[in-house]
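Let's study a protein:

===
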Amino acid sequence: MESRTKRRTAGLATAMLIAAGLSVVTAGPASASACTLPPCGRVENKTTTYIGVRWKNNDSDPWSTASLAPGTGMGGYTYSPRRDIDGFYSVQGCRTTYSVRAGSQYFAYGGWVKVSSNETAKVLSVTC
């Protein structure tokens, strides 16, 4: 029961952050580009909670954000719509586990996590 409440809280916090247009940057600036040629960044949500993602088509554009449902992905050249996803959101106070290469495992503890254009970030778990 407590775990379900924590997942809902994490999902609600992500949704509120996206709705408010706020961002906390934990990595260097992402390289903005439309996905007209490969490679293009991608995020896959392997968790049971929603994950915030963001992208820009040009450096002068405002950030576009979306909430990525559990079991879904966004971005990449071979997926429709073609988007170069620049990052995903790790909820403050929670541990987000993700992978960008086979066998790799990284942790984030709050804020936006950069996804390079040549990477597919697989968000594996969110523990609050």
Notes: Residues 14 and 47 are 14 Å apart (CA to CA). The helical segments are 2-20. Residues 2-127 form one domain.
